[in-house]
Amino acid sequence: MHMRKYHRKMASTNYKPRIAVIYISVSGHTAQLALQMAGALEHYGRVEIHEVCSMPVALLREVDILAVGTYTWDSGELPKGMEEVYEDIEQLGRKELVTIAFGTGDRFYPNFCGGVDLLRDMLYVQTTLAAVLKVELAPQPKDKERCTLAAARAIEKWEHLLKKNNCAHA
Ligand SMILES: Cc1cc2nc3c(=O)[nH]c(=O)nc-3n(C[C@H](O)[C@H](O)[C@H](O)COP(=O)(O)O)c2cc1C
């Protein structure tokens, strides 16, 4: 099946979502996946992509859709560099922020992509979590389809929230 089929047709509105992908990566796998994720989200609007160490401070308050990517370290833990962003999102108080948790890991370790699980649990509570994507080591071309699905799910959630808010303010 061709990937294009998964793209969601956006509702007719002039407002496009503000989208960002943020990630942390040492050996490049999660960086590659972040690019695939950004490519999938670009179908719906302009996408900013940043490593967490250099992301603009205000970003978390400004975007409508945020994809957060991490590798896993030390028996299923988040890397140190992700901890601050994790806490920032936790304290953000933006349930209307639509999120995707993604990342890479290695099945050699007992807690495969444990860092993504930690992100997922927090994003589920603090934001509107739309999708979770785990990839083993380097992403493959087939993972583009999984990114496309995650992006479509995020847009669906965002449109749903937008409609709900418009009704509430009508
Ligand atoms: C010391 C060490 C511990 C790791 N622990 C885990 C782990 O608990 N679970 C997991 O799924 N992967 C684990 N990994 C694998 C990395 O998360 C995986 O290689 C990942 O793709 C690296 O991402 P990056 O290329 O974006 O840096 C570990 C790797 C190293 C070197």
Give a verbal description of the structure.
- It is a single chain.
- This protein is an alpha/beta fold and 170 residues long.
- The protein has one domain (16-169): Rossmann fold (3-Layer(aba) Sandwich), CATH 3.40.50.
- 40% of the residues lie in helices and 20% in strands.
- It contains five helices and five strands.
- The protein has helices at 29-41, 59-62, 80-90, 114-126, 143-169, and strands spanning 19-23, 47-51, 65-71, 98-105, 128-136.
- The protein has a five-stranded parallel beta sheet with strand order 2-1-3-4-5, sandwiched between helices.
- Helix 1 (29-41) links the parallel strand 1 and strand 2 (47-51).
- The N and C termini lie far apart (41 Å).
- The model has no long low-confidence stretch (mean pLDDT 93).
- The protein binds flavin mononucleotide.
Q: Superfamily at the CATH H level?
A: Flavodoxin domain
CATH architecture: 3-Layer(aba) Sandwich
Strand count, sense and barrel status of the largest sheet are: 5 strands, parallel
Based on secondary structure, the structural category is alpha/beta
Q: What is the helix/strand order?
A: EHEHEHEHEH
Mean pLDDT: 93
Task: Give a list of the ligands.
Answer: flavin mononucleotide
Offer a concise description of the structure:
The chain is an alpha/beta fold. It is built from five helices and five strands, in the order βαβαβαβαβα. The termini are far apart.
